[in-house]
Design a protein that fits this description.
2 copies of one chain form a homodimer.
Chain A (H helix, E strand, L loop, with lengths): L11 H9 L18 H11 L17 H16 L3 E4 L5 E5 L10 E6 L12 H16 L8 E6 L7 H6 L18 H7 L19 E7 L4 H4 L4 E7 L1 E10 L3 E2 L11 H16 L7 E3 L3 E4 L5 E2 L2 E10 L2 H22 L2 E10 L2 E2 L2 H13 L4 E6 L4 H5 L5 E6 L15 H20 L4
Parallel strand pairs in A: 3-4, 3-5, 5-16, 6-15
Antiparallel strand pairs in A: 1-2, 2-4, 6-14, 6-16, 7-12, 7-13, 8-11, 9-12, 10-12
Helix pairs in contact in A: 2-4, 2-12, 3-4, 4-12, 8-9, 10-12
Chain lengths: 443, 443
């Protein structure tokens, strides 16, 4: 598979020579040293991390704030120390590994990282690849005695899967009220922060100001099947999609399924079925990568011999363009009015959550693309359909995200898998892009 | 509302005279005495029974085997004694009130009755009207010193709402295994039978042989809205519909709602929605009174941000004609194959329960219709979409059922309501039909 091999030819003879003595590499603003991560070591680290919260049937349950999470983070903390980072835990419970820069003291830090908590019955790649990839990049820089201009910070965000808690603490969006919400571990977020070594009373110390960070980079698995299906190596993320979630309540009239003639029913589930079909039809009626999902449904009273009188279901729309989400929503509302009329039911939409789209920085996108191509890797510009800590960091700084293929597009599952070579490729792109961003003037 | 008044004119002068001295009524096989129930007393009894298990917000919860059921039955037992019936509780817990006949000793008993248990949060008419109506008929016969040829048995079946338990004990279908099922009261049926004064060890004594009963008559509320909508007084039930219930499991593939493109989904809920729509379309595509219902649905994993990978839903089809149910089911299966193919899902149908249709006896239907018309009441032949104890009795004897209007077609609800005049009409039709059946030779 030549497409996944590095193209050292691009580096020329000088590059090949330089590899023998990294200390001698001249760092200029136009070219970055042709250093490479240690793919075997990265694989070993991923395997070792997979032990924490390992499930007998495969995959991992490393819920934020669980014992598995605490112990997994201890392991990661150790790796960061081995990578010569100055490691600490901030008041929110994020692990931060610092590395001084060589440049002007006023240069802002360059952040990169991901998370190591998982969903219940999750896999070993979502978050892990980006976290251990970032640490591997730091280790590679240390081993090659390379110092960036900007100070570096490797960040392992806490509780990404439970609502991007660590990165939301960093951008100041995490509220006092949320601290008392119970996470999937059974602990409140406030208790969880203490378990991780943070201090919920000092959250304000975690907050970064807008413009105080040079850039944020994150490597992640795609979690979709596009790169694999199109036989591509690297996804250059255009942004994290906006997510709008409504709960929709449909009221009909519960009645006896035997004695109520078909033409005299107010069947909330039949109306719900027509709604689900309409959502799918409307979302797929225009070109683009928007998605629309009804993932949750309940019908009451819920007996085989009673016509459902009430249905509650979720509607989720995602796209990079908030205006497109609104346009789709309006089309759905219009069609819903028709369904309600014909089925003698009523629909009520309650907005539960809105994540506005978070575009990545076009200059960073270009540097990621360039880095991948110099490594001989094929690329595709694509949105991230999933939420990531990068979306919170985008409120503070220019961000970039690098995707690697997910086999079968499966994620949040023990079946989640990315190939070793793809992981190594992703870490090398992260390393090269980081060095390029370090040398660019983004601010 | 003239249509609900009795037409005494039909009885002629002789009838009017006879009313003054019922003892003088000549009982012939061609005409029955023009006796009438006491509608005010029947209303009083219904009101009194409504106190047992009364809910503060209206209606009643008189679950079989509950304390409310036990005490309600005590009240009913007393009414039956007042009606000069020889009252006992059989081994299954059914209350039986006997009245001797005047005819040949070999004449089989004529049974009539209903049930007094309710669904949770039920109403005061389903079962109660037929039970207290039957007792009122017996009381009227006693007061008028009328003796039928056949011995009579008023039967108050136990636990109709939880699976026709009392009538299934009588036709021998109740299995030992079922006795250990937990009823909605929290007690097993075995324990419940003891609470009611029965003896689960002696159930075989309850079983009646096929052909050992002259006929069974039951008065009941329609539970649908047809009689009310068509402004009719009495429904002459053509039979109790067959009920086929399947659980349908749809398997797709659970995946991330953000990262899985629309054209790459195996959405079990979208397939389920198309199924629900297809069931409705197919059931309503041919003329007739058949009904099809999806009353229960669950979608897994059931999160707004995950495409459902598995859906389980119920499919229930009802009709008087078992062949029509099968025909509709086959049409649904054929369309399901298409849905499965297009949505890349699989459907599995599991038959949970089959109640075969139970037609009523055409001769009894005719006698009910004649009785109603002689009382100046309008009638309609109609199926019973709901199950009743009569369907079990139909395995043993010719049966007949009399429906009265349900306001708004609402049933199994505190809003269940039938007008006083309609209840009185129904009891008078029961009385007249009983006397006609008594004088007819059905066997």
């Amino acid at each position: 598979m030549n497409r996944r091999k590095f193209n050292f030819g691009l580096l020329g003879t000088a590059g090949a020579l330089m590899l023998r003595n990294p200390l001698a590499i001249p760092i200029s603003r136009d070219s970055v040293p042709p250093v490479r991560v240690n793919g075997a070591r990265l694989s070993d680290h991923l395997r070792a991390l997979a032990e924490f919260g390992k499930n007998p049937q495969g995959g991992v349950s490393r819920l934020a704030y669980s014992e598995a999470d605490r112990r997994g983070r201890e392991y990661v903390f150790g790796l960061m120390q081995q990578a010569k980072l100055e490691v600490s835990i901030d008041a929110a419970g994020n692990i931060i590994g610092r590395r001084a820069g060589s440049g002007d003291n006023r240069l802002k830090p360059l952040l990169f990282g991901s998370h190591v908590d998982s969903v219940p019955e999750g896999g070993n790649y979502d978050g892990d690849v980006g976290s251990l990839g970032a640490i591997e990049v730091a280790q590679t820089l240390a081993e090659n005695h390379l110092t960036t201009r900007h100070p570096l910070e490797v960040v392992i965000f806490q509780n990404e899967e439970g609502g991007l808690i660590g990165s939301r603490a960093m951008n100041g969006e995490l509220t006092e009220k949320e601290l008392d919400l119970v996470s999937r571990s059974g602990k409140t977020i406030r208790e969880g922060i203490r378990v991780l070594g943070g201090d919920p009373a000092k959250l304000s110390s975690v907050k970064r100001d807008k413009g105080s960070i040079a850039a944020y980079l994150e490597l992640h698995i795609e979690q979709g099947g596009i790169l694999e299906a199109e036989k591509l190596d690297i996804g250059v993320v255009e942004g994290i999609v906006g997510i709008n979630w409504w709960d929709v309540t449909i009221e009909g009239f519960a009645n006896h399924a035997g004695t109520t003639p078909m033409n005299n029913r107010q069947d909330a589930l039949l109306a719900g079925a027509k709604f689900i079909e309409a959502v799918n039809r409307i979302v797929t009626s225009i070109p683009g990568r928007q998605v629309g999902t009804v993932g949750r449904i309940s019908a009451l009273p819920g007996a085989p011999n009673v016509i459902p009188g009430k249905v509650v279901l979720s509607l989720e729309l995602r796209d990079l363009d908030a205006a497109k989400i609104q346009m789709l929503y309006q089309k759905i509302r219009t069609e819903t009015d028709q369904i309600a009329k014909l089925s003698k039911t009523t629909f009520d939409f309650k907005e539960i959550n809105v994540n506005i789209p978070a575009p990545t920085d076009p200059r960073i996108r270009s540097l990621i693309d360039q880095s991948a191509k110099e490594l001989g890797l094929s690329t595709k510009q694509m949105p991230s359909g999933a939420g990531h800590d990068a979306q919170d960091m985008a409120r503070l700084a220019p961000v970039g995200m690098i995707f690697i293929p997910s086999v079968g597009g499966i994620s949040h599952s023990p079946k989640e898998f990315s190939k070793r070579q793809d992981i190594e490729n992703g870490a090398n792109v992260l390393l090269q892009a980081l060095l390029k961003v370090d040398r660019a003037d983004l601010n």
